[in-house]
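The instructor's notes for this session suggest beginning with a concrete chain rather than abstract definitions. Hand out the sequence below and ask the class to guess, before any prediction is shown, which regions might be ordered.
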Amino acid sequence: MMKKIHTPLTEKCIRSLRAGDEVRLSGVIYTARDLAHQQLSLAISRKRKLPLCLKNQIIYYCGPNPPAKKMAIGSCGPTTSSRMDEFSEDLLKAGLKGMVGKGSRSEIVKLAIKKYKAVYFLTIAGAGALLATKIKKAKVVAYKKFGPEAIYRLEVEDFPLIVGIDCRGRDIFKKKGK
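After discussion, reveal the predicted structure:
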């Protein structure tokens, strides 16, 4: 059964999700890739104000393309999540509750997801043009000079996700019994 969820993520919503659940997400999410993660992590370590509030938010590991005609954004498929692993715990500690990308995560990130009661979602790799149709508005909100690696605020509607790692640390990439 498909679950419909909305942002910002609540504790009740996060607790209701199980690894493998199919989800349709609506609300606001933010994009951030390697460079933006590095800058956010640096700001956190230096106790500087962040350019956006991470509390109960979701970051989508994506570098969107310029919009096509009558679209809010261009193709925007997920990037490999493990590239953000070294920064993930800092962002979770700062209040981030959800991450969206592709691929498995390190054991350290899985433990941090469990510790901070967060969730890691997967989305469709190779279907960036299709995912763009689920984005209703897009606006750069931080690090504009980084181009496609800037942080975008996206308003999404029925964005397709699968729970990859739930708040209990269950991981769809791990075989049962291991």
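Then share the key points. DSSP finds five helices and seven strands in the chain. The chain has one domain: 3-165.
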